[in-house]
Design goal:
alpha+beta; Rubrerythrin, domain 2; binds zinc ion
């Protein structure tokens, strides 16, 4: 719970959503430059899981 804000990779808006942008539905990322981010892998995993289930 260190960094709650996420930034959309597409429209550039900030959001508290962790999986995707509430405005355009694109991927969100941690806005400050991540050197090593295990979180991203987790997000990607969840993203894929959702996609497989046909939720996207
Ligand atoms: Zn967006």
């Amino acid at each position: 719970m260190r960094w709650l804000l996420r930034k959309c990779t597409s429209c550039g808006r900030y959001t508290l959503k962790k999986d995707r942008c509430p405005y355009c539905g694109r991927e969100v990322t941690v806005p400050h430059p991540p050197r090593f981010s295990p979180h991203d892998k987790y997000l990607e995993y969840r993203y894929r899981l959702k996609k497989e289930k046909g939720l996207l």
